[in-house]
Amino acid sequence: MHDIITVILAYDGFRWASALMYAVFATGLLWLGFVHHQAKVRGDKEVKQYPRGYFTFLSIQLIPLLVTGFVIGDAFVIGTRLWTLVAVAIVYMMTSSEDGTFVSARHLAWSFVMIALAMLVPMLWSESETAHALLRDFQPYIAWGSVAVMILFVWKGQLSVARELFSHFVGGNYSVKRLNLQFVRLAGFALQSLAYWYAPSKATPIFGFDPIFVQGAIGTLGVAFVLASALVGFVGGSRRRRYNKAAESTLALVRTA
């Protein structure tokens, strides 16, 4: 086992695999956003909503560690957080539209803000030594902030997802579309934790532990709780599923009679 881990670490396997999981997660988010938008355009009466504030907490959770990644020059942290943040912003824009269009003043204003930030932040980072020095000086506090925000996201965001998935399955539903992304997220966090447990980053430690490891470990526990809640709901909804299936069979017989 030790030899296998040594080979994985030699090729930075944990981080590469974790980055791939983040790519799958971001793509899955986009797909859910497209499905949501398509349902809006069709005029479906019931369009599945995300928990209130989910995208806000997810964005806030990503930003402190993204800043930490820029300060310490960690390509994994920068790439995974930046492109996940881009995917979150796109999906939020799609799911926040009431009628499936994006011509409201709010959508145009947010589009301007995101494009301006994408242009100006790299300019500021590449040309301002003051910005570099400021972030270096405050890097320990930013790292602490990333962990604190992760705890808040698990408590507020993931708890909402856990409640929603529990209600979904205990109500007798079979669909696992959103649950699939939770498995991907679990793998991403767990692999990140392993990567920075064995090879800590240059970030200032928190109680002796790498903050990127701590954030990944907290995320792993949060997603594990979501999956456990879904499992309990699925088991608890078995009777309801049998009832729904029997009702569908009865209705089919009535229609063919």
Search tags:
257 residues; mainly alpha
What does this protein structure show overall?
Helix 2 (13-42) packs antiparallel against helix 8, helix 7 (139-170) runs parallel beside helix 9 and helix 8 runs antiparallel to helix 9. The chain has one domain. It is globular and about 75 Å long. 82% of the residues lie in helices and 0% in strands. With 257 residues, it is mainly α. The mean pLDDT is 82. It contains ten helices and no strands. The termini are far apart. It has helices spanning 2-10, 13-42, 54-72, 75-95, 105-127, 129-137, 139-170, 177-198, 211-236, 238-256.
Q: How would you concisely characterize the structure shown here?
A:
With 257 residues, the protein is mainly α. It has helices at residues 2-10, 13-42, 54-72, 75-95, 105-127, 129-137, 139-170, 177-198, 211-236, 238-256.
Give the proportion of residues in helices: over 70%
In sequence order, what are the helices and strands, one letter per element? HHHHHHHHHH
| Cα shape | globular
Q: Main sheet, how many strands, which sense, barrel? A: none
SSE layout and pairings?
Blueprint: H1 2-10, H2 13-42, H3 54-72, H4 75-95, H5 105-127, H6 129-137, H7 139-170, H8 177-198, H9 211-236, H10 238-256
Helix pairs in contact: 2-4, 2-8, 3-4, 3-7, 7-9, 8-9
